[in-house]
Amino acid sequence: MIRDSSHRGPPVDPQTRSAVRAFAPGSIGNLGPGLDILGCAITGPGDAVVARMHDSPGIHLEDPGHPELPRDPEHHASAIAAAEVLRRIGATSVGVSLSIEKGLPLSGGQGGSAASAIAGAFAVNALLGAPLQDHDLLLAALVAEQRVAGRHLDNLAPALLGGIVLVRSIEPLDIVRLSSPAALRFVVVHPDMRLRTADARAVLPPHVDLPTAMAQAGAIAKMVWAFGTGDVERLRGVIDDRIAEPARAPLLPGFAEAKKAAIDAGALGCSIAGGGPSAFAMVNGDHAAGRTLAAMLDAYRAAGMDATGRVARVDERGTRVEPSHPTNTINSA
Amino acid sequence: MIRDSSHRGPPVDPQTRSAVRAFAPGSIGNLGPGLDILGCAITGPGDAVVARMHDSPGIHLEDPGHPELPRDPEHHASAIAAAEVLRRIGATSVGVSLSIEKGLPLSGGQGGSAASAIAGAFAVNALLGAPLQDHDLLLAALVAEQRVAGRHLDNLAPALLGGIVLVRSIEPLDIVRLSSPAALRFVVVHPDMRLRTADARAVLPPHVDLPTAMAQAGAIAKMVWAFGTGDVERLRGVIDDRIAEPARAPLLPGFAEAKKAAIDAGALGCSIAGGGPSAFAMVNGDHAAGRTLAAMLDAYRAAGMDATGRVARVDERGTRVEPSHPTNTINSA
Fold first, then answer.
1. pLDDT at B330
2. Does the reported pTM lie above 0.80?
3. ipTM reported for the complex, 2 dp
4. Average pLDDT, whole number, for chain A?
5. Quick one: fold of A5-176?
6. Beta partners for A272?
7. Among B35, B206, B228, whose Cβ lies nearest the Cβ of A228?
8. Fewest CB atoms within 10 Å of the CB: A27, A73, B206, B323?
9. Nearest by CB: B169 against A166, A218, A224
10. CATH of domain A184-312
11. Which of B224, B231, B240, B243 to mutate to test the interface with A (most CBs of A within 10 A)?
């Protein structure tokens, strides 16, 4: 694993802190053909978790972040991950309360559960002086992700590390942070519907034929090569998912039309973000990104689906300690 | 496709030539997990084809290169590919005779059929003033490869272009020549048996489960990333084929023992070359390569299988016009 914690915010002094706010970016999992193994953190909204010391041991959920999210710490991604951090540290007598600021849409396919989980793990770990390394934080957050979304790291790993990440293996943990072409932009469009991760997973085929498996592998491999060259144009036509997208597209009204519109508008490629319903396009530069965004929104609306969207860059920083705004420096005592 | 013909040998003057000798290197197809999509040209023996003008139209097979190879041009890889070159040029009245120098083992898994096919295509094309580009030469040779071995380019493309090549797609043709870490060595061991490509292909599973497909893709993607970084150590443990190797290993007495011996001797990884029976190990540097070669040969012999082997580098040159030796300059009239 490639680690670089220098961007993770100011050091937290265990003697003076009383609260830590950790921010985790949104991410695109299942990046095109990279089902479960390729993901990218993106700039813009994310989830934040404020962790404060609490008098009674265990994890207390002060604010779940959204009226529809569970108030029971046993079922909230941030709290599950935070509890797993306490367990891994062996801090059985420590109490921590969590307040979640939910910036990502629920069941949107933008890595919301992963951002909540890793921000929870990161905040508690930072509050306690950061005894755990990235490896353990990922596995702690995976306990939560597995319970609420599925056992995969393609959102968690980029949300923590930033950038584009290849998850070669979970056991043993083998992840690679790839480089990102500077001109790469993501257009993320969120149609006004929800799709539960579990439902999106249920339609995946249990088996694929050998030519399909190898074509999918070839597309992923070419994407990895293209990322490495830094030449974003080499991604054109390669975002070719033959496994998840054909199975999930029928669940997503307007997606096929939006994808066609994105390609026609000059996007390098377009597919479903995570398990959907959000769609993403990969685009060369800001100008083409704006054009692609407009075309995709129009296409969704013409298909009878209201939609919102935005243009993002690769978030190279990943999860970090970050005060909410300058007048509220919660890291000071 | 990345083209660089500067290494392909001296220009052939159509007015003065009467013969061209093209040499194509051996190659490892199915490079570890890269079934049908990843291959590497290697230094050492290869196949050569001498093409000469002939009075009667069509391809004439003067010497098939081996007593067990067909004398009928309709069934010999070099001749099939050469005929396809004539067809693509539209040279219906041209006659060419071919003599094959077979340096690679028959049914060895070292890309022998691909080397014969591409050398045949290349020699005839060069003899006629090189009207066809790499793209057409590959597709001409693919006609032969498909007839004698199967419709795949993972030997043909590296044999033509040199280096490590990712075959993303045959239709449309999309191949990428990857970079090769300087310290990369191949240990190639040929046990004293044959395995027909068709038999090796018959045992492949028609379907794979989704986790296996994605694990295979992840391994291929990490190999591509490792090649790009130039750091050969990043290949360690990644040459992990979950599809072809488990199906084919039972056909190959001694392979499991040789693979274990290779890993124990410090190899980065080990798998079956092409469809077998040859095995290959990828190794960091000459010293480890020598140790790995000795260990693999010992293991085969201990398992009751005689074997020969060698250490090779990546052949960066690919197919080229090359006189057999200085005193026999067959390119002059």
1. 43
2. yes
3. 0.91
4. 92
5. Ribosomal Protein S5; domain 2 (3.30.230)
6. A279
7. B228
8. B206
9. A218
10. 3.30.70.890
11. B224
